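Hi R.,

Here's the chain you asked about this morning:
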Amino acid sequence: MPNKLLFVAVLMLYSTSLLQALQSTLVRYLPCWGMGADCHVSLLSISENATFMVTNANDWHCILRLYRPDYHNDTEILSELEWMLALEKNSIIRIPHIYPTVYGELLTICEIASIRWRIVCFEYLSGSTPSLNAASLEWFEKLGILTAQLHIQSYTWQKPLGFYRKHWTYETMASPQAYFGDWRQVRNLHSTAYRLLERCDYLLKKRLYRLSRQRENYILLHADLRTANLLIDSEYLAVIDFDDCGFSWKALDFANAVSFMEDHPLMPELQQAWLSGYATVTYPSKELISSIELFVMMRRMQLMGWIVTHAETPTAQKLGESHTLGTINLAENFLTKPF
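And the predicted structure, written out as tokens:
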């Protein structure tokens, strides 16, 4: 399990000076992928990882991801890449190609500011992220199709020796030891709201322990199919960022797809569209359908912890108190459900 203190410290390292150091170092590392002096490196985004875009004189692009320290180890990152290679080989879904170095390596190591960073080069995919409106139902149905295809491949794929990814359970998502942070550390949480969320947390834990971990229910998931990781083009819906892929129950893929919009009025329609698309590929099990609300609530609690440990990110700053208030309302509703 990651060291939580170091985890928070690393997140706060994304200062302007560090980002400049990362960018200048990447320029020196470009020859590792056969890229030359005509290439320009620019910051694309920061969240868990620092992501940069490389552009050459012919306007060709690729993506360099620097994995944040103390989250995944090398084995976990290589396992992520192995799954992506398997998906690409079987043409299951549209995902970015991984560019190996000129030495045939998928993962490159460098040291910046006395921290060990891991770098991977990905294909740049064009397209736009989906927006949330009435037209969302069409692409959410497509997402249901895509998710079912991923689930079938995951279930049937023979994992290579040494394959290892994290498990997304109550302990790793909502407990005080959660990977992304502890929701209990949210600032200015009123005692009444805290007790309400504690009751919700207890029910989540109780219900999760009842779920089966049989192989057909508990599989390797993308585990972050939210809109920021989807790209719509005229011909396809592509998926990027497998950084959080791990083992969990199938319904978590829907819950993560509606991250930060769990209280949107379109939620019932989005869920139905997703299930309709899923059913065109394989019938969703009774357990998958019945546990969707459970995982939507647990994901929301997980994101409260994420905001605590990612306070400097644009997403966390934008959400702030409104996300906490929305979570409290969702928890009140969740506790009235007859489970």
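The longest helix spans residues 314-335.

Let me know if you need anything else.
M.
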